[in-house]
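Need a sequence for this fold. Nothing fancy.
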């Protein structure tokens, strides 16, 4: 089990923020979610540096951040997603 303690706020390390590149990528996936309307399906094809699993995870997390449930699935290395 984890060890718990209480320290002064001034002793705690500062909260880190996302680097600019990560923020941009997160915003891109949030835009993808916003563009898929009812009855439509988004399609993400990975490039050589990406995996379908990573894309599916990013699009699902973008849905969570925007409050829109996303259902993602992979067929033949391509990620498809629908927004509820």
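Here you go.
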């Amino acid at each position: 089990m984890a060890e718990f303690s209480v320290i002064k706020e001034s002793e705690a390390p500062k909260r880190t923020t996302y680097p600019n590149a990560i923020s941009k990528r997160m915003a891109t996936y949030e835009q993808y979610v916003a563009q898929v309307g009812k009855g439509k399906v988004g399609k993400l094809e990975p490039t050589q540096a990406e995996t379908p699993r990573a894309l599916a995870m990013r699009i699902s997390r973008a849905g969570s951040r925007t409050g829109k449930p996303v259902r993602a699935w992979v067929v033949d290395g391509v990620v498809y997603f629908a927004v509820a």
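For context: The CA atoms of residues 11 and 68 lie 37 Å apart.
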